[in-house]
Design goal:
By secondary structure, this protein is of the alpha/beta class. The chain folds into three domains: 40-235, Rossmann fold (3-Layer(aba) Sandwich), CATH 3.40.50.300; 250-288 and 301-335, no CATH class; 387-598, Nucleotidyltransferase, domain 5 (2-Layer Sandwich). It is built from 19 helices and 27 strands. A nine-stranded mixed β-sheet has the order 5-6-7-4-8-9-3-11-10, sandwiched between helices. α17 crosses α19 (566-576). It starts with a helix and ends in a 27-residue tail after the last strand.
Length: 610
């Protein structure tokens, strides 16, 4: 193969190479006409991730969080075009609304009309679709069409602004996405690109993003992936050459930037960026990050001030959403997420440390026992068995029994056992944790009460652990538990008539107490790695609810549309009352279960509180 043939082979098989040699796009200044683009850092990451998945001979599945106007959509459309010209491919390009699809299609037409590379096939791109002589074909869809993509099979899918489909009026956006993804077989040499700016820390796109593998971890070999796994791609605003003002700053202007760091509220955050991202690059210049080679950190911050003031109306939240420095920031700023996303992400990463145990609590006499079952048969899920001297509390956010409710999609009972945090014999802090839960259910109250009583006995040992019931929707649950002599949480009530303080059973939520307990959980999530604080939530279903719990415009903290909050309220209430948790004392044996962090210990540890 001579040099010319080698170059052509590279261009044919590498989308970015074709893009930089034969690709044509419109310049941002349209008066300059068409230009041949050069890949930026984000585009190179997309290409490298695709290359890595192709080399591993697994389906290419990429979810990308994009900043504003940095060319990722244009580049991915170029990938789709080259894949179709390279081999027989059925492709679909879909947006949340028609103008987005039109934008993708205009890019496709521009690529075809100005492509000087000899692909050894011919074809055309028109308003109806694209057809090439090698058998490739493509069509455009809008997500508002609930039948989009159904009834066909594709090897390439690009879904643009996927996080914003609901905002564009797409009903059941998650269902639409699921349907079209089913049309792409899970085979090597198939491609799915889900790309979007951030919209909110909830919904289908966000959930796929959270569960994906970081591109850095995949490309470095730190994390191995299997066919069907998604890899997420992100680039910070300061990793783009455009994030420096086109005219270099004078020394006087640079000194002014340095002297006024964080002086104004509207551009606050500069010192944090320097502390977190400043790097002495190999050319001797200090910058935010080590990617670009134009400007220095002062010129990057000068561009940030410009963008916040001129493009974002002096609103830092808008800047952090459109030009994020981390993907966590992008999602936080794009929606009113109630719980800290970095904390949630860290808690989610720890899920693999515990293997849930599904089963039934049996109590033939007075001593309960856990019988393992299949997940479908189990009524409880254990994340850790009771630990001697550790303290436990069972919390319940009940709903009305299913035979009493008329709602098409009523809430479920949320029942958790929480363990209080403690220090082990080596002085290591063990966070409060969800020890167990009753499966998500809509049981009638008598059925729920029996299951709660068994679970409370199981985590009480010689007695029963404390039970805290939210009383607003009690419907007789507390009365049934009182008949068993349950250790029920009681609140104090001041009687203004008799000037006496009395006690009442159950935790009553009102605007103040509800927000207090949610704030307690929010602090634990935010400070998950703080000594003496934090929480381990081992239940992925509960984490999903927490991820989709928001602060609405009226200031109320509640589940976002389409989500429930029973698990959130139950965990928050248990954590709020954790100081009243009761210690576990084994009934008939001196042996006890070790927490997940001790699974490899060769001998039992002494009592947690001895």
């Amino acid at each position: 193969m001579n040099e010319h043939e080698l170059i052509n082979a590279v261009i044919r098989n590498h989308s970015a190479s074709w893009w930089e040699v034969h690709g044509k796009i419109w310049a941002k200044d349209r008066t300059k006409g068409l230009i041949t683009p050069k890949t930026n850092h984000l585009q190179r990451k997309i290409q490298a991730t695709m290359d890595g998945m192709e080399e591993a001979d697994i389906p290419v599945r990429i979810v990308e969080l994009k900043p504003r106007a940095r060319g990722s959509t244009t580049f991915i459309t170029g990938i789709g075009y080259t894949v179709m010209r390279r081999t027989s491919t059925s492709a679909v390009f879909i947006g949340g609304q028609s103008d987005q699809t039109v934008g993708l299609w205009n890019m496709m037409k521009t690529y075809k009309a100005n492509d000087g590379f000899d692909w050894k096939n011919t074809g055309e791109v028109n308003e109806k679709g694209a057809v090439f002589s090698n058998g490739s074909r493509a069509k455009k869809e809008t997500a508002k069409d609930v039948q989009a993509g159904i009834g066909d099979t594709y090897q390439f899918l690009q879904a643009t602004e996927a996080a914003r489909w609901s905002q564009y009026g797409v009903a059941n956006a998650g269902d639409v996405m699921a349907n079209i993804l089913k049309a792409v077989p899970l085979l090597p040499k198939t491609y799915v690109f889900l790309e979007s700016t951030a919209e909110s820390a909830s919904g289908d796109f966000y959930n796929r993003w959270i569960s994906a593998v970081d591109s850095e971890d995949f490309l470095s070999g730190k994390v191995k992936i299997r066919g069907g796994d998604y890899v997420r791609v992100f680039a910070a605003w300061f990793q783009f050459e455009e994030s420096v003002l086109p005219t270099p700053l004078t020394e006087e202007e640079k000194n002014h930037i340095e002297a006024t760091l964080d002086n104004e509220e509207w551009y606050y955050g500069e010192k944090m960026l320097l502390d977190t991202y400043a790097v002495d690059c190999d050319d001797g210049v200090r910058r935010l990050g080590d990617v670009i080679r134009n400007g220095d950190w002062r010129e990057q911050l000068a561009w940030r001030r410009y963008a916040i003031e001129k493009e974002c109306g002096r609103d830092r939240d808008v800047f952090d959403r459109d030009y994020p420095h981390s993907w966590q920031t992008a999602f936080q700023k794009s929606g009113n997420m109630r719980f800290n996303i970095s904390g949630i992400s860290a808690i989610r990463k720890r899920l693999s440390l515990v293997i849930p145990m599904h089963g039934i609590i049996e109590m033939p006499k007075t001593v309960p026992a856990f019988r393992p079952t299949s997940q479908g048969e189990g009524t409880v899920t254990l994340f850790e068995k009771p630990i001697k001297d550790c303290r436990y509390i069972l919390s319940c956010d009940p709903m009305t029994g299913i035979t009493q409710t008329g709602s098409k999609d009523p809430d479920r009972h949320g029942v958790f056992v929480l363990r209080k945090g403690y220090r082990d014999t080596k002085g290591v802090w063990r966070r409060p944790a969800t020890a167990a839960r009753i499966v998500q259910c809509r049981w009638d109250i008598d059925v729920l009460e029996l299951a709660m009583w068994k679970l409370a006995k199981y985590y009480g040992g010689t007695t029963a652990c404390m039970i805290a019931v939210e009383v607003n929707m009690d419907r007789g649950l507390i009365e049934l538990l009182k008949l068993r002599g349950a250790n029920l949480y009681r609140r104090e009530i001041f009687n203004r008539t008799d000037y006496k303080t009395t006690e009442a059973y159950g935790y009553q939520t009102n605007q103040r107490t509800r927000e207090n307990m949610i704030e307690t959980l929010a602090a634990a999530v935010r400070e998950w790695d703080t000594e003496g604080a934090g929480i381990d939530i081992w239940c992925p279903l509960a984490l999903e609810q927490i991820e989709n719990f928001i602060r609405k415009a009226n200031g109320r903290s509640e589940a976002s549309d389409g989500w429930k909050d029973d698990d959130v309220i139950s965990i928050a209430m248990g954590l709020e009352l954790i100081d009243q948790a009761t210690p576990y004392f084994p009934v008939a044996s001196s042996a006890w279960y070790l927490p997940p962090s001790h699974k490899s210990s060769p001998t039992p540890q002494p009592s947690a509180f001895s």
